[in-house]
Structure formats: C-alpha cells, structure tokens
Amino acid sequence: MATESSNPSPPQNAKVINHVILISVDGLRPELLQAPLIEKHPSMARLLRGPHTFEARTDPDSTVTLPNHVGMVTGRLFAGPLGHNWLGNSDPPKPGAGGTINEMHGEYVASIFDVASDRGVATAVIATKTKFILLDQSYDETNGAMDIVGTDDGRDKIDAFITCKESDQVATETLKFITHSAVKGERSLSFLHFAETDGAGHAQAWDLADETEYRKACVRVDTAIGKLLSGIDSDATLCGHVAIVLTSDHGGGVPPRSHTDPKAPINFTIPFLVWLGVDQAPSDLYAANATMRTLPNAAENPRAEEAKPIRNADAGNLVLMMLGLPAIPNSTVNAAQDLIFVPSTGTTVR
Ligand SMILES: [Zn+2]
Fold first, then answer.
1. pLDDT digits over 75-109, tens only?
2. Range of the domain at 162
3. Distance 27 CA to ligand 1 centre (A)
4. Residue 8 CA, ligand 1 centroid: distance in Å
5. Cα(258) to centroid of ligand 1, in Å?
6. CA of 252 relative to ligand 1 center, distance in Å
7. Ligand 1 centroid to 228 CA: how many Å?
8. Which of 5, 57, 201, 252 could form a disulfide with 259 if both were Cys (CB 3.0 to 4.6 A apart)?
9. Count of structural domains, the chain
10. Would you say residue 104 lies in a domain?
11. Residues 311/57, Cβ–Cβ less than 8 Å
C-alpha cells in the first residue's frame, strides 16, 4: 500500500543505486561529525551531503558492539519475543554450542544478507573485530536458511566474509568486492565495520581534545573512507551508483573508558547518515521523517513502545529498500521500510 511515507521520487540528480554500503564506525560520537571537529574528517564530511541526523539512537537496552550490530543486520531490537536476543559481546561459541543468532533466539532470525542473497545480490561483511564471526556462523552454508525465492542462491547468505586488522584494509577489500561484483554484472550489499575508534576510546577514554588517541583513530577511519570514495569516484561503473549509510553501534565515555551504561546520552546518541551516491545539500533526516519518527529528548533513548526515534537498527531495512529489496521477514524496526531517505529541502540538521 502506497502511503505518504514511501520514497516515491529519487533525488533529481541521483542515478540507479546498484551497490549499497552500510558502514558502522565503532564508538563514533556525533561530535566528530560536527563543527569544529568535522574539519579533520573531509570524507565523512562528504557523506553529510545528504539527509542525516546527529540524534539517532542505539538499542534502548544495550550500548555495546555485538547486540547493536545484530540489530542493524536483522532489523530487530535486542529485547522481547520479537527481539534478536543476542546479548554477548565477545567472540561467540561455535555453532551448535550457542554460537548462532538463531540458537540464541530459538528460531531462525533472518537478516539483510538473507533478503539480498536470495535475490541474487552479492553480499559481504568486512569487519575489524573477530567477534563478527557470529554473522558468518549464523548465515553460512550450514546455518543459513534455504533459499525459496526464485533461483536457489544457496544457504550461505554472506558471499565474502573478511576480517581485517586495519581500517585501510577495509577500504581495499571493499573496493575489490564491489568492483568484482560490478564486473560480473551483479549488484551488491556490503556491511563494513571500523573498530579503531572504539579501541582508542577504551585505551585512552573518549577524549575529544586534539591529538588524543580517539581523535587520531577517527582521522585514520576517515582516511580509509576517503580511499573508498576515491575508488568509487574513479570507476565509471561505480561512480554515482554506490550509496552509503553510515552509523555507529554506540558512542562512548560512560564509564570513561567504556560505553556500557545504556542510560548515558553520550553512549546512546549516535550519527546516522544517508549518502545517495552524489553530493547533495545536507538535510535533516528527522525533518524528512516528521510523521514517521520522533526526535527524542536529548536525555532519552525511548523504548520501542514509548516512541520511535531514528535508530541504528533502522539501517537494515533502509539499505534493502535502497536496493529495491523488500524488508527482512519478521523484523520490527523499519519493517514497513518507511524511513524516508529522499532529502527534504530547506531543513536544518539537528
Ligand atoms: Zn567498545
């Protein structure tokens, strides 16, 4: 059913989106993307040239890494019978010993990788923490669901699962993957994770002063994103056809060298950026979604039954929609794919 919430007309200068990259910068506080600190991050500044907000929210019950990333790729929050229920935040046990999302939840939890892979879209996870093996284990040739949509693309839902040590390598591997997909005439969905920012925060606190480890790590991540954007710009088959959604699993700073308190605003407040493959005027993602999402009070991360802020878990069904794909079965966040990503004009970013 078409409603006012749908995304009926693409931006005027947009081309067909063939590749979508979902980027999570681990522990990225929104201040890094705002003046004056954004001056040090020219590549992330470019991704601000589209609809975005600095007032997105994490899961209401968790501000740690794995539960929030599982939320992004499954379109579910942590808690409740419809939640993904994955609370662990270290390397998971082996499959069969509790090491898949499906085992934890009690039944199959579909993901963005299911929807994309089953429809012939190439999929990748390129991450910088070993615990992301959870995704590979949950959606591999043994534990992934049967493909009952069209051509059988198999049970393995993640075509390329790559663990990197450094941010630069994430950019290199991503370019390789997308280029390879484009050469084969395939569309693609990539999920990228940059851990350096989080590592620096744990080492020396989420200190926003000049030249801290956290600030230096942000610059390294920005440089890697710059390499990715340059690679896309210089390839005629990719330029204008690759969209990027960038968000984070959590902020950080409560306690000072961590981010475990889900009630702390500096932990649960995160950025959420939508870049549609071309640089556009910056616009407010909440203004575009005035009837569908509620800008929360700065001190609050409302529970699902209380209000609907823009969350990192909105990203899963958003990236599928950007590829023209349906929502993740049984997902609960952005399940109607009603998060509007077409910029509204004349709005001020909040
Ligand atoms: Zn951390």
1. 999 999 999 999 999 999 999 999 999 999 999 99
2. 19-322
3. 6
4. 38
5. 6
6. 8
7. 24
8. 252
9. 1
10. yes
11. yes
